[in-house]
């Protein structure tokens, strides 16, 4: 499906996500577990704030001089005997990849996890090729593939929305006869995928970082599937977003440490690999090495207030602290890139018409900004998106626009503002309900509640009741003024 | 085919950035602080060994410290414990360095032993890796901070040697225990710049293959070796 993972409107996606109790519970568990692991790993390293500044400085420098780093990287890939294709669009990238597979006479393609290939909707394109089999080899991606290509819901844990029973059902279709123990199911997956690895002729991998000064790539995994994908097949196709560079291995090593601690609370991922075109004399690894560098609207962020989003290293830490992600999960966002990073990135890559709601799917609590290992001011970028949508693009049409105009007029005129304060209690009376008196609210000042508010107020009352504002004579300012006149003590 | 569509692509990026291309020579990246170099730099070799053991065992990795003379017996016991061959060994002078040539002969008399051969073809070496119950290799470094061994590919030691066998043992001299990945990467960069290392792949391996993709329950051995053993040899 590419960048968009749903055809449903935003509100329907959220309603569907809210009904998925297992996904909701598993996301909460993941967030809580990862919080402890991540913070412990960072604390153990020490000086985390200075590490963040270091990581930011590397990524900002690369983005600022991106054309030069890409030129250096591609020159060095070529020197090693490899090939680089610069793709402006997803169509260009897909055409190139399919052509390479044809040229290589590839029949068995193995893939390791890659967000960018999902952005290309590459799996679907590969499925359409005659006589070509495709296998996603990351365990989570494998589960999604075998469940009729279900969509991922997390950057680091793509199948977080599935429980062991669902996985058990999926694996039974493949001939698995064991129980639903994750260890047993993982062993079955190992055997199933190993057989296909050994017949693979093309490996497709992502790229955590491309090393500019040596023309090799850096891959971080825990399973080792990327290492098999770059060892066994004769051809390797690396698909990378254009911003995923570092100057040298020295900076890659710094980023690998920060990525592992931020993504999964490990010091390093189990496998940190630096690899490229096979060197003469070696017998495995890619004899034919291709790198596809994809723009797909990333360049729209360059030179704008959104440039900092290109610093992202896809650790997913911002998802793991986000209260909105906790409630609506990955599928609620409807984008391949969910959570705060997705709410910033998706409108840039896919446009405001498709992803314009996402910057508003945030409480602006700034937990994402606080946890980002490369200091991306995520919540500020969300505010900037809102500014663009409302001020520059004037996208807030209809009743919302009317309401905001009324609020604007009312709050900018002292007379109107005072009138609004005077009549707020009366004005909201059509939506007011008296709650029955109970033991818990017996002493409360006001049992009048709005349970289904008008217009924008409905956004609040959809999830909780709104107490009716007091009558004008009971307002604190009015009471205070009256009290002082009577010579009362202001204390 | 080599590089396609580059100039148009990069010119567009430069235009978006509002600056001309080819600025890097006068604006190279300067490391902001020396945290990578300073972290754990105060540890003595004995402290690094203790840290390496602690962090490796937490992964979990089986960790041994032996004198060179004890190494052959340990390897024989290991092979027996893991159910025997086929073994996959690299073609390397390290066996002679560690005085393991007699062990090579004796183990070959009892078990099926295959070597990753520089003059064999791709299919032959991959087949040897595919059927291997045990893979043994020599590491370039052991990183104390993370319990990681590092290996570089060469004609006598392919990539798949480290990933296809069911059980994996890595031998590393005590003098090659360093604080963290920073020191290992600095060495690899220096060797490559000096033309002493021409490798297409450098692997940092931190314990056995694992995954938390089903309900976040950690399981080992999804793709790579099911278990990993490090042997630190006192040199």
Features:
heterodimer; A: alpha/beta; Rossmann fold; 2 domains; six-stranded parallel beta sheet; four-stranded mixed beta sheet; B: 235 residues; alpha/beta; 8 helices; 33% helix; globular; NagB/RpiA_transferase-like (chain B); Lactate utilization protein C (chain B); LUD_dom (chain B); FTHF_cligase-like_sf (chain B); metal-binding (chain A)
Please give a structural write-up:
The complex is a heterodimer of chains A (491) and B (235). Chain A has 491 residues and is of the alpha/beta class. The N and C termini of chain A lie far apart (64 Å). Chain A has helices at residues 10-19, 21-45, 48-64, 66-79, 90-103, 115-120, 122-127, 139-146, 164-172, 182-198, 225-229, 249-264, 317-321, 323-333, 339-350, 352-355, 367-371, 378-392, 398-412, 414-427, 457-461, 476-485, and strands at 83-87, 108-111, 133-136, 202-205, 209-211, 216-221, 235-241, 245-246, 271-275, 288-294, 432-434, 448-450, 466-467. Chain A is elongated, with a radius of gyration of 27 Å. The longest helix of chain A is centred in the N-terminal third of the chain and has 25 residues, at 21-45. Chain A folds into 2 domains: 10-300, Rossmann fold (3-Layer(aba) Sandwich), CATH 3.40.50.10420; 413-485, no CATH class. With 235 residues, chain B is α/β, with parallel strands linked by helices. Chain B has a single domain, classed as NagB/RpiA/CoA transferase-like (Rossmann fold, 3-Layer(aba) Sandwich). Chain B is built from 8 helices and 13 strands. Chain B has helices at 6-17, 35-38, 45-57, 71-81, 94-97, 101-110, 122-131, 181-193, and strands at 3-4, 62-66, 87-90, 113-116, 134-138, 141-143, 148-152, 167-173, 177-178, 201-205, 210-211, 219-220, 227-233. In chain B, a hairpin with a 4-residue loop joins strand 6 (141-143) and strand 7 (148-152). The interface between A and B is large, with 109 and 85 residues. Strand 1 (83-87) of chain A pairs parallel with strand 1 of chain B.
